């Protein structure tokens, strides 16, 4: 497979609005030892693209500091964590047999080698990502999905949103037959959580609003409560015996309101702060009921391998809301920020 020495890419030159995204020609990256070069056939957008671009993650010593996913960024940086494509070249020590394989890239940068390693960085933030015609990745984090019935844009929708949702489900130890509450259920992670929890055999109660309620129900929720009305009252009606696991990307006031909804030994898993990052709750609702509040950032290698098994079997089918060409990345991010859609927005280089 011929690879040109230059490629089209979209990168950010600093923190800011959509205007900091520049479409440019850059040198095609060369895979280093035990890396592969992937031709990007589809790259999905995530909220993390917006927040990394804006520098919205804060730092431990200063919550309002401009920062990438896990710290200061090196600019310019090619964005994009979620890549589906084909391996076109391998670096020293990587398996030549991977060339030509259809793959999904695990975008996490891990703190160690094992199956339970923690993600401490992200492609598109701590290293260059997939808003480009080509991207390099460690060979061990490129998963062969050649036989999957999913389309390229569906495969690209999986890594961050579905990886994050599956990480929440696994850390929350969700079992078949349990009741799960999903907040922010029309967003990328929310829809993924609904679909994955339903596939696991859980009873899914989802929180959404307005015109998106029907789409969330179609994604697999057994009951959908309207966040514009009294959420607690509606959840109590939908799950009178309580909730086993909360999968929460909203946080804010919802944590304090949600903990009393948990059954004995319930787990409240937080993977986002759309509703605010300062939280207050009655700690008695925690210790008197053996409840747990669990932080969940993305996935482990073991979680991602499980997700790829689901992808190969097409056991979940991601919803794709819209596709854009690569040079319209800024418009695509603006559409993502408007939050009018249900499902993923994908760029097709």
Can you describe this structure?
With 349 residues, the protein is of the alpha/beta class. The protein has two domains: 206 residues, Medium-chain alcohol dehydrogenases, catalytic domain (Quinone Oxidoreductase, Chain A, domain 1); 123 residues, 3-Layer(aba) Sandwich (Rossmann fold). The chain is built from ten helices and 18 strands. Strands 3, 5, 6, 9, 10, 17 and 18 form a seven-stranded mixed beta sheet that branches. Strands 13-12-11-14-15-16 form a six-stranded parallel beta sheet, sandwiched between helices. A three-stranded antiparallel beta sheet has the order 2-1-4, with no helix packed on it. Helix 3 crosses helix 4 and helix 3 packs across helix 9. The two termini are 17 Å apart. The model has no long low-confidence stretch (mean pLDDT 96).
Short overview:
By secondary structure, this protein is of the alpha/beta class. It has helices at residues 47-54, 152-156, 158-171, 188-200, 213-219, 231-238, 253-258, 284-287, 301-312, 329-338, and strands at residues 6-12, 21-27, 35-44, 77-78, 82-90, 102-105, 108-110, 119-122, 134-138, 142-144, 179-182, 203-208, 223-226, 243-248, 262-270, 292-295, 320-325, 344-348. It folds into two domains: 6-161 and 299-348, Medium-chain alcohol dehydrogenases, catalytic domain (Quinone Oxidoreductase, Chain A, domain 1); 173-295, NAD(P)-binding Rossmann-like Domain (Rossmann fold).
